[in-house]
TrEMBL record:
Residues 1-26 form the signal peptide. PROSITE patterns: PROKAR_LIPOPROTEIN. This is Lipoprotein. It comes from Nitrospira defluvii. Keywords: Signal.
Length: 79
């Protein structure tokens, strides 16, 4: 599986999960549209990790979300 197809598959999974949930990512100092940029950067960094290049999507998503959380983003329930 190529890197481009892995990224596309990951984005599809994230979009499906986001559509089904009532949660959203928020940051105390950044606008909501900055999340996509931060997420994409974290995902690109994650895909460079040799341990995660096997294409196990769940591990890639978890590592990407940990990276986003380190940047200050938090997943909170919508009201």
């Amino acid at each position: 599986m190529t890197t481009l197809s892995r990224v596309s598959c990951s984005l599809l999974v994230v979009c499906v999960l986001a559509a089904c949930s009532t949660s959203e990512w928020v940051h105390p100092n950044r606008p909501k549209d900055q999340f996509t940029l931060d997420y994409n950067k974290c995902q690109a960094d994650t895909l460079r990790d040799p341990k995660l290049q096997q294409g196990i999507q769940l591990l890639i998503i978890q590592a990407t979300e940990r990276c986003v959380q380190k940047q200050g983003w938090r997943l909170v329930e919508k009201e």
